[in-house]
What we know:
This protein has 181 residues and is of the alpha+beta class. It is built from two helices and eight strands.
Amino acid sequence: MKKYLALVLFMGSVGLAGWTFHDYASSGEAVLDRPLIGKEGTLSDVRLDPTMSPARAFLAVDYEIYIQDVTNDAYSFDVSLKGDAGQVLFSKTGYHSVKKDDRGSPRETSEMNHILASFDVPASGLYELHWSVRPQKAKIRGVSFKVRRNVAALNTPMLFLAGGCFVLGILMITSSLKRRR
């Protein structure tokens, strides 16, 4: 009986965490989806206003990679958004790597959405986006910059509940193993 309850707790913790992260990434309303041409560049006509706050920015990278090693560095990126007076709303540097799966194909085609930042828009106007995507082992098929407005914050109480379910499941399993000895 305890093993079934532990299984339900583990599944509940994974479900709660997945639901919370999905809600975080997909909350709000999409207001901008701009394709970015080339490996780097600048967009100086990103129009934002304070009614969008809080906003969340994403970098979507569509790539193809031939997986050769256990860990394959696909690409790295740098993105920053600046206002009129040069104030930086956010700046993000990151990378994406792909792990080899023995059962999978050696070639993978995928789109990865990177959450760049959640931010408040200080004033209405045009903002300037500076971006760079540096392919390493991947072939970059397309890049776009996305903004969602009026987004929700991460629901930390739900994550604590998911963590509590996970810990409780582990405690139930370890206590039943100690009784068998």
